[in-house]
Design brief:
UDP-N-acetylmuramoyl-L-alanine:D-glutamate ligase, Protein-Tyrosine Phosphatase, Chain A, globular, alpha/beta, Udp-n-acetylmuramoylalanyl-d-glutamate--2,6- Diaminopimelate Ligase, Chain: A, domain 1, 11-stranded mixed sheet, about 25% strand, 6-stranded mixed sheet, single chain, 3 domains
């Protein structure tokens, strides 16, 4: 519990008189979560306006309302601010006693690779004997605690709550994915990062961002949140690196395979059975690494995590061992072998760049045909659909176009958009039902083939209309192969 005067110190409301002795028991942005004594912050959402629920918040016991617009006279004090999203972050940070103090924060941003880099860093830090917390797309976890991730980066109140719990439980370092949505919506406002990592930038979320440049510059905000003594680790092969460097407060180190004018050069990539080896060269020093992860894009992910560990002062052997301990990341190039001699790869690839990278990586170890099953999400950027179709046509031998999360959009329309990018004589099958498409691809597969099932990866649901239905690509595959059963 905290006094209002302490919570709102130096916050200058546009209007509103509040008793200085008001006790605050929590800060919430969802009226259904309000408990007596809570501050309810009304946020203008993209589909729902929190200002419509202030009366519900009062009925549930809210002691104070924070709003952006006039809501008339209410039975509880009202504070009006210019930006309630920012206010929510400031209030949550104070309510949870600035929980990032005493924590070393490492943030990862980029279109693809965030989850993989996060898990690699978690393993590296744990191998160094550091108590580490993880916040990302797949899960939030620390010291035996696990919580299901609702967003890649939680809303500000949830984020500061998690950081407080981690700090209280003795966590030292926190590795977290920082999405462009989180940066644009000030979810991480008030945090300072010791390390910031940029993986890559390709087309995504252009239903949210006004342009590709806006998307990239939004990612770059993470580097403005670096500690002056902190270190930014950036992919020097990606043209968007200039946006990141331009925002950086701390020092910058770069890595790359194509661009030789970087601090860490990636050389001598060698693919063995099940593993990938490469050298990371800094000046005249060559540091060997080996990973169970496949594909050039995963070499880049490993490099980003390894450099971060090294720049934090960890020993090379500690970093190397931490990387080698990661055999796979759920929903990222997950491989299943069938009894019939073909392989299945499940991957979250849902952007043009990610699908291209996965198909190129799989092509390297495909003995015969490469079969791909994929779709695109509904109510999202339509422009990436034909691009993904084009990459599938270029790199796969047989293409099954199906549903991803159609949401409120007509699935047939989504499939039609994808097909506009497919100009090929190759076999193309369109099936709206995702399970049916997956079964079709698995029926088609023969010894030496590889089936890539892309788009949903770790997700355990399918969004159709406004509802979520249980759906897990891995469970569907294992059930088909007789390795498990759907439930």
């Amino acid at each position: 519990m905290i006094r209002f005067a302490q919570l709102c110190k130096n916050i200058r409301p546009i209007s509103g008189n509040v008793g200085k002795d008001l006790n605050v028991t929590g800060v919430v942005i969802n009226s259904r979560q309000v408990e007596p004594g809570n501050v309810f912050v009304a946020i203008r959402g993209f589909e729902v306006d929190g200002h419509h629920f202030v009366d519900d918040a009062i009925r549930r016991g809210a002691g104070l309302l924070v709003v952006e617009r006039d809501i008339g006279e209410k039975s509880v004090p009202v504070v009006r601010v210019e930006n309630s999203r920012r206010a929510a972050a400031v209030l949550a940070n104070r309510f949870f006693d600035e929980p990032s103090r005493g924590l070393r924060l490492i943030g990862i941003t980029g279109t693809n690779g965030k989850s993989t880099v996060t898990f690699l860093l978690e393993s590296i830090l744990a191998n160094a004997g550091i108590e580490v917390g993880l916040i990302g797309t797949l899960i939030y976890r620390w010291k035996g605690n696990e919580e299901t991730a609702a967003h890649t980066t939680p809303d500000s109140i949830e984020l500061f709550r998690l950081l407080r719990k981690m700090r209280d439980d003795g966590v030292q370092d926190v590795v977290m994915e920082v999405s462009s949505h989180a940066l644009a919506l000030d979810r991480a406002l008030g945090l300072t990062f010791e390390s910031a990592i940029f993986t890559n930038l390709s087309r995504d979320h252009l239903d949210f961002h006004s342009s590709f440049e806006d998307y990239g510059k939004c990612k770059a905000k993470l580097f403005s949140m670096l500690s002056p003594e902190g270190c930014g680790v950036v992919n020097g092969d990606d043209a968007a690196v200039e946006w990141m460097v331009g925002e950086a407060r701390g020092r910058i180190v770069s890595y790359g395979e194509i661009n030789k004018d970087v601090d860490y050069r990636i050389e001598s990539i060698e693919r063995t059975v099940g593993n990938t080896r490469f050298l990371m060269c800094k000046e005249d020093k060559k540091i060997p690494f080996e990973t169970h992860l496949r594909g050039r894009f995963n070499v880049m992910n490993v490099a980003a995590a390894a450099i971060t560990g090294l720049e934090l002062g960890l020993a090379e052997e500690v970093v190397r061992e931490g990387i080698y301990k990661i055999r796979n990341v759920r929903g990222r190039m997950e491989t299943i072998d069938s009894m019939l001699g073909f392989q299945i790869v499940i991957d979250y690839a849902h952007t043009p760049g990610a699908l291209k990278n996965v198909l190129m990586a799989v092509r390297e170890f495909t003995e015969k045909r490469l079969i791909v099953v994929f779709g695109c999400g509904g109510d999202r950027d339509r422009g990436k659909r034909p691009e993904m179709g084009g990459f599938a046509a270029d790199l796969a031998d047989i293409i099954f176009v199906t549903s991803d999360n159609p949401r409120r959009e007509n699935p047939e329309t989504i499939l039609k958009d994808i097909l506009e990018g497919i100009d090929t004589e190759k076999k193309v099958i369109t099936l709206v039902d995702r399970k049916e498409a997956m079964h079709g691809a698995l029926d088609e597969a023969r010894e030496g083939d590889v089936v890539v099932i892309a788009g949903k990866g770790h997700e355990t649901y399918q969004e159709i209309g406004t509802e979520r239905f249980p759906f897990n690509d891995r469970v569907v595959v294992e059930t088909f192969l007789g390795l498990g059963k759907e439930g």
